[in-house]
Amino acid sequence: MPIRPAVESDLPQLVSALAPDPGRAQLxxxxxxxxxxxxxxxxxxxxxxVVGTVSVSPGAEHDGTTRRLFAxxxxxxxxxxxxGALLIAEVERIVAKDGHSVVRLEVSVDxxxxxxxxxxxxxxxxxxxxxxxxxxGVDGHPSEDVVxxxxxxxxxxxxxx
Length: 161
Fold this sequence. Notes:
The protein has helices at 11-18, 24-35, 83-97, 112-120; strands spanning 3-5, 40-46, 49-56, 66-74, 102-108, 124-134, 146-156. The protein is an alpha+beta fold. It has one domain (3-156): Aminopeptidase.
């Protein structure tokens, strides 16, 4: 399954594959954030169709070693087939290739399937759950405020990926 950088023309396929959530406006906002350097957006294809996506921060955080994995989404009819794992592995490969050694992410305390997936791949919870609130409007695209209680997870990459 090819995983590649997303391009604007992927938007209709992403909307279709991931419906009903995230919606078109939220996905369009991800492309807007990519255009201004807030995220690098990747997509996974199956038989020429986009079936999932993940984002990675384009550079290291203040510590110089940590990158963020976020917005992992796989269409409901494509779940439980290992695609999420492949997207996570690709982010880890990119992070290691760029010379960074830690991947961090936030996940809602209610998203038990995602927490289990991340823990299966060696991600560990850091501290207690915390309230996260974010809202970002970029390039004229509206975004909604998101408020959730989330776990912070991280993985220290070892060896070469």
